[in-house]
Structure formats: C-alpha cells, structure tokens
Design goal:
This protein is about 30% helix and about 15% strand. The chain is of the alpha/beta class. The chain folds into two domains: about 50 residues, no CATH class; about 270 residues, Alkaline Phosphatase, subunit A. The strands form four sheets. Strands 5-10-6-7-8-9 form a six-stranded mixed beta sheet, with helices on both faces. Strands 1-2 form a two-stranded antiparallel ribbon. Strands 3-4 form a two-stranded parallel ribbon. It is globular, with a radius of gyration of 29 Å.
Length: about 350
C-alpha cells in the first residue's frame, strides 16, 4: 500500500508508546483520516505486542513561508503585467516614473489649464489614465515601501516617515523579482528606504545601479554638496559653499538617459523617483522664465513664487518618448533641451 510522505513522517516522528498487559511495549500507530490526506496509513502489527491500538491523528498546520509567498505574488504580478510576450523572451523595457508631491490636479490630462505638461498629456491620451488609484500611505517613505514590496501598509517594514527606517534584509522588492527574471535594474532619484550602511540601500534591494539621494531629507535640497552613486558619495564641486551650478534633477535625468543608452538592447527596469516638484522649490532661472508675469505675485524679496509651476512644467514639458535608441522607451526629465535631448 502506497503511503504519502507526510503520512509516514507523522507515524515515524510521533509514536505513542505504552506498556501492554504482559509488561512489553506496544506502539499506538496513528490512522490518518482519508479526508485529511486522501490516503490512510497501513496498520502494522508487531509480533511481540498483544495488540495495536489505532489513534486518530490531529494534523498541525504547516508553517507558511511568508517571504516565499510574497516572492511568488510579485513574480506573478510581473508576469501578468508583461503579458504573453514575457513568455516568448520578448520582454519589454519597464520605466516607472514617480513624481514627488505631484498631484493629479497639476497635469493637463486631468483638466489643469495653467501649467504646461504636453508630453505627459500625450502619454495619457495614448495610454491609460487611472482615476481611482490610491497611494500606499499618506506620506513618503511608507508609501514607497508599499510600492516596492507590495505589502499592505500594516505589514510593511517601513512605517515611519523619518527617512531613517530601512527595508529589511529579507524584504522582497519588485526590482529583485525582475532581476531574477533577467532584467537589468536601475534607480535614479530619491530612494528614501534606507540610508548608507543599512540593509535598505538600493544595491541590496535588487537594483544594479543607483544614482541620487538615499535619505529623503537630503532630497529636500536641489543644489546639494553630493549625491550617491551606488554606495559611495559623489561630490558636486559646482555646489560647494553656496554655489548653485549643478541642479540635481538635471544630473539625475542625464544619468537615467545614460542608463537607457547603455542597456537599450537588453530588458531593463528603470525606476525614476524624481524629486521635483517637492520642496525645496528651486529651479534654474531658465525654467522660471516661461512663467514670469503669468500669475499674480505676492511681493517677495528674492525669487518669484512660482517655482512649483516651473517644476511641474519640467515634468510635463520634457517627458516624451524616443524611438532612436532601440525599443520604445518612455521617460520624463527636466531640462532635456539644455543637455541636448528631446
């Protein structure tokens, strides 16, 4: 009689041994109900024993490997998102753009009339608009954790918005799932899920390349003294002391474009969590010029109070698609005209 492995383990590892009437020993073998395992354990008799008693077995639930469940769920999500082409090894490139503090009311595709966002409007007209979608949390870091891991906010490892809480070493991210599926993975912008020398840095969470800000408070400054490239600091000499010569968003956008150029012939996942239009509300002067005099200004001692419009405009003006570098790619950058790309 063929017996399942689980049934045999239940018998061999859980014997109940009692003395019989003659002072010997007898083993009470469990009988597994057919409705529990779909088979029964044969009752084996020992010639030295006077009897063998059958005892019903109450099975203990098998512990769930939550990490494995999440991995399978994320992998399934990725495969469904990619569609049948993924199974044919014709994997499309994936670019996910996250604009920090950009409300849907800032975009022309949702009815806004004052800020120009032509390329994002075109993307919306040629694609899909989501009108009933909610973020994973009300604030930055927990929401990004939900996005990266797929966890409900109540189960995610980053629930505080201090910027100092990292992802755990055993967290599973979308990037790690895609990397195992053969994708090159890169992130350019604001991470916010683990500072330096923690388990949360991008290179330990499935990303091959990273350039930008690790700590979210650091990302509040658009002319910083340094940015991070993977796990090392890259100092910006144009911003030393009080200089403002290297606008971080332009540097991040150019690094992202370089990633696309280098991996245009491979499947890649490009995550672009841009910092604009979140504060600090500073943009290069040429980005302000388009809006000079178009809005009522409250007297201010330094700059006009319309950099938010200019920041949102940078998202919409320069987001577009490029057919010249291999597979079609969607990207959104600021000041592409200034660096020679459109």
């Amino acid at each position: 009689m063929r017996v399942g492995l689980t049934a045999l383990r239940a018998v061999l590892h859980n014997p109940r041994v009692l003395p019989n009437k003659k002072g010997g020993r007898t083993t009470k073998l469990r009988k597994l109900r057919e409705q529990e395992l779909g088979s029964t354990v044969p009752i084996l008799k020992n010639s030295r024993d006077s009897y063998v008693e059958e005892v019903p077995l109450t099975l203990k639930p098998t512990p769930v490997n939550l990490k494995r469940v999440i991995q399978l769920a994320l992998y399934s999500w990725v495969m469904v998102s990619l569609g049948p082409t993924a199974l044919a090894n014709n994997r499309p490139n994936i670019i996910f753009i996250l604009a920090d503090d950009l409300g849907y009311g800032h975009l022309g595709s949702y009815g806004q009339k004052k800020i120009r966002t032509p390329h994002l409007d075109r993307m919306a007209s040629e694609g899909v608009r989501f009108t009933q979608v909610y973020a994973g949390n009300t604030v930055c870091a927990p929401s990004r954790c939900v996005l990266m891991t797929g966890h409900h906010g109540g189960h995610s490892s980053v629930r505080a918005n201090s910027g100092a809480v990292p992802l755990l070493g055993d967290d599973v991210t979308v990037a790690s799932v895609l990397k195992r599926a053969g994708y090159v993975t890169g992130i350019f912008g604001k991470w916010g899920l683990g500072d330096a020398r923690t388990t949360g840095i991008p290179n330990q969470q499935g990303f091959d390349e990273f350039y930008g800000y690790l700590h979210q408070v650091h990302a509040h400054f658009y002319y910083p003294h340094f940015l991070w490239k993977d796990d090392r600091k890259v100092f910006l000499t144009g911003n030393r002391e009080d200089w403002r010569k290297q606008y971080s968003h332009d540097l991040i956008a150019e690094a992202a474009l370089d990633f696309v150029r280098r991996y245009k012939n491979k499947p890649f996942f490009l995550y672009l969590p841009f910092t604009i239009p979140h504060s600090e509300h500073l943009v290069p002067r040429d980005s302000l010029e388009e809006y000079q005099g178009k809005f009522p200004e409250i007297p201010f001692t330094s700059e006009p109070r319309n950099p938010l419009c200019a920041s949102a405009n940078s998202q919409g003006r320069d987001g577009g698609h490029d057919h010249s570098n291999g597979p079609q790619c969607w990207f959104c950058t600021s000041s592409l005209e200034r660096v020679g790309h459109r």
